[in-house]
Amino acid sequence: MERAKTRVREIMAIPSAPGDIAGRAFDVFIMSLIVLNTIAVVLESMPGVMSAYRPWLVAFEWFSVGIFALEYLLRLWSVTTEAAYAHPVRGRLRWMATPFAVIDLLAILPALLFAVDLRFLRVLRVLRILKLGRYSDSVIILGNVLRRSRRELLTSLFVVLLALLLLASFMYYAEREAQPDKFGSIPHSLYWGIVAISTTGYGDIVPVTTAGRVLAGVTAIVGVAAIALPVGILSSSFVQEIEARRRLRAGVSESACPHCGRDIKEMRD
User: Distance between CA 195 and CA 35 in Å, rounded?
Assistant: First the structure.
């Protein structure tokens, strides 16, 4: 039993071991099924296609649900082979709370809830595309980058929100008498601030006073900085992540000097 559980876990491992034909075939099959499900969800939104091919689309939906449910149960069954989830109960509960396990559950949840007529949850089926993240090295890199730079990103987000609140408040006092229907409160001004600071510029709400136009110019400049700040943080983190992966493949320590290759910790000692 333990040997079978270990083998199932190996087949489902990401990435598959080199030369593991069964693991590679499983990856290709699941990725293809995810892509086909996404296409099916898009096609179902077209009345002509849905009316003409409804039986086929419904059959494919239930086939997919069965495969995804089986995949989820096999992952849940075999996860105890990993040291972090070794406990038969607490380990499985801990795994069920991981991001990819939650996505796997959401992939089958809408079909399980059809019985109570929650038809609006059909849109959740498009979340199956997120399952590709488990098989995409790019998505894994992105996740590592976001984790690496989460504090800096949260700090920049706080700064942007603070600037947005201040600018919207100033705009409220500058425009409330001239345009009470559009800038009648700070929340109304916040909508204008979001549109302006994101440099979207719908043009449905525009300042007409001199003070308001000056504030609009300041907001546009702040918007450029607001976009550049997280972009710079993410770019730096991407470079660090790619360099760390390159060193890992080359068998070089992360603390090695990029110029001479010697370990920086050893050099300090």
Answer: 34
CA dihedral 197, 198, 200, 203 (to 10 degrees): -20
pLDDT tens-digit readout, 131-174: 666 666 666 777 788 888 888 888 888 888 888 888 889 999 89
| Residues with Cβ within 8 Å of residue 133, at least 6 apart in sequence | 100, 103, 139, 140, 143
For 172-216, how does the pLDDT look when each residue is reduced to its tens digit (9 = 90+)? Answer: 989 888 888 888 888 888 888 888 888 787 878 888 899 989 988
The domain limits of the chain are: 2-135, 150-268
Q: Which CATH architecture has domain 150-268?
A: Orthogonal Bundle (1.10)
2-135 and 150-268 share one fold: no
Q: How far apart are CA 108 and CA 72, in angstroms?
A: 9
2-135 has which CATH code? 1.20.120.350
Peptide bond into 47 cis (omega under 30): no
Query: What does residue 16 show for φ and ψ, rounded to 5 degrees?
Result: -65, 150
Return the residue matching tokens 């987000």.
Answer: 157
